[in-house]
Amino acid sequence: MVTRPRILVVGAGFAGVACVRRLERKLSPGEADITLVTPSAYQLYLPLLPQVASGVLTPQSIAVSLRRSEKYRTRIIPGGAIGVDLKAKVCVIRTITDKIVDESYDYIVLAPGSVTRTFDIPGLTDHAFGMKTLAEAAYIRDHVITQLDLADASDDPAERASRLQFVVVGGGYAGTETAACLQRLTHSAVKRYPRLDPSLIKWHLIDIAPKLMPELGDKLGRSAQEILGRRGIEISLGVSIEKAGPEEVTFTDGRVVPTRTLIWTAGVVASPLIGTLGAETVRGRLAVDAKMNLPGHDGVFALGDAAAVPDRAKGDENAICPPTAQHAMRQGKRVADNVIATLRNQPQRPYVHKDLGLVVDLGGKDAVSKPLGIELRGVPAQIVARGYHWSALRTNVAKTRVLTNWTLNAIAGDDFVRTGFQARRPAKLKDFEHTNRYMTPEQVRAHLARTDSPEQ
Ligand SMILES: Cc1cc2nc3c(=O)[nH]c(=O)nc-3n(C[C@H](O)[C@H](O)[C@H](O)COP(=O)(O)OP(=O)(O)OC[C@H]3O[C@@H](n4cnc5c(N)ncnc54)[C@H](O)[C@@H]3O)c2cc1C
Predict the structure, then answer these.
(1) Residue 29 maps to which CATH number?
(2) Which residue among 45, 152, 186, 320 has its CA within the 20 to 30 Å range from the CA of 310?
(3) Sign of CA dihedral 40, 41, 46, 52
């Protein structure tokens, strides 16, 4: 029997999918077997998630098919890696039906991305929503419309006030876009609720940092702040959450805001899978070299949000790439090339990419962007923002869906329909990201020893 080298890719996000597609394209079917472990059947285009939450895009339009590819031949295991024995070269996987399977590999590419970073704030994981998964975005949309429906039906002024205030924590691009897009949703929707006083609707955007989106620079950060301020979003900087409850949130400056909607987007940390490896980390991300190899472990690569990849383009040897899709996608291609180089006994190459800048879509004609260091605002910034995301969508079908959604939304607006299909499911931070499913290195070893033992 001919045994081909087995390449196992963990995670089907920007990094994992870019890697798999490149491997499929460059390796002949006889050269290696490619397997992908992923809990979902799509690659999520995360930067457009706030537009799903606000109803500009349908959820399906940013869930890009994994199986639509010209050279598609990867075996997909629907599940999540919960532990890896780097010595034995075995990955332990929990499938979507909760079955535990052990997958042996010769090369492993770790690209499980990140999860929402939380802090030990009383009530946070029980009462806050995240903005990291498709289900969360769809859920938040329904939840916000539900608040309008219930406030409209209520004659209790206190209930109305708490249902019509919304708090977003995190002044990075994810939080800023989320607050901006959802404020547009409630601003437009309230016209269909003649009983509701629009002035009761209040959005808060808070961050412990002194500036919004510092990576945009002072001028653009201020522009974004002005745009949001003009729309009535109250921005509080240098402020965080002291505690969260079901009907109110306490800020660290002492304010108590009655609200049923707390959206937490205060940064990300590497997937818990990284902590199970017992390897060195840099701020929680797996420490790899510039070729994205895990030092001391042949055939182990890591990249994307989960790894601390040196940022060679910065000229500072301690700099690591920020957790962005821009880097993850390009690192995926480079890792594929390095895996292939190893297979073919050729030299690997380091990852070097100069950041192309940032685009921030604030909804409608509002945007700020800094492509290649050029500062743009308004319609030109919006054209660049949407053009960038559109061209980065991987399949033509996804591009067509997104373009059609944008056009339809611009012409006909939103119907603000509350679908309710997720209404009875748990949906807070603790429920969606399944961060408690992982094994410790000792559990992985004990599990593999058990499955190897003859009595089994
Ligand atoms: C709201 C929002 C807006 C953003 N906007 C921008 C932007 O404008 N520009 C930009 O460059 N970046 C943006 N980002 C950041 C960007 O999305 C991430 O940096 C990028 O997705 C990282 O790619 P990745 O492949 O490392 O991880 P991901 O794309 O998150 O993919 C990780 C994949 O691994 C899977 N997975 C997780 N755990 C496991 C496991 N144990 N086993 C198997 N599979 C697993 C996940 O299901 C997922 O499919 C945004 C992020 C958010 C949340």
Answers:
(1) 3.50.50.60
(2) 45
(3) negative
Query: pLDDT at position 3, please?
Result: 87
Same domain? 214 vs 310: no
CA distance linking residue 95 with residue 430, whole number of Å: 20
Ranges of H-type helices in 37-132: 49-53, 124-127
> Which DSSP helix (H) or strand (E) runs through 183?
helix 173-189
Q: Which two tokens stand for residue 12?
A: 């089907």
Q: Give, for 163, the enclosing helix (H) or strand (E).
A: helix 157-163
Does the beta carbon of 304 sit less than 6 angstroms from any atom of ligand 1? yes
Query: In whole angstroms, what is the distance from residue 366 CA to residue 384 CA?
Result: 12
124: helix, strand or coil? helix
- Ligand 1 atom closest to Cα of residue 80: 42
**Helical packing angle, 134-153 and 173-189, nearest 10°:** 40
Per-residue confidence band for 432, with pLDDT thresholds at 50, 70 and 90 = confident
User: Which residue range(s) make up the domain with 43?
Assistant: 6-116+269-355+433-452
Query: Which structure tokens are listed for 99?
Result: 């079955």
For ligand 1, atom 42, name the residue with the nearest CA: 80
What single-letter DSSP state applies at residue 70?
T
Closest by CA to 111, choosing from 281, 335, 321, 280, is 335
Q: Quick check: CB of 174 below 6 Å from ligand 1?
A: yes
Neighbours of 8 (CB within 10 A): 26
Distance in Å, CA 451 to ligand 1 centroid:
33
pLDDT tens, position by position, 114-153:
999 999 999 999 999 999 999 999 999 999 999 999 999 9
Number of domains in the chain: 2
Asked if residue 95 and residue 138 are part of one domain, the reply reads: no
Ligand 1 atom with minimal separation from the 132 CA? 53
Average pLDDT for residues 52-69, to the nearest whole number?
94
Half-sphere exposure in the Cβ direction for 84 (13 Å, CA): 27
Cα(201) to centroid of ligand 1, in Å? 31
CA of 256 to the centre of ligand 1 (A): 33
Question: Is residue 348 included in any domain, yes or no?
Answer: yes
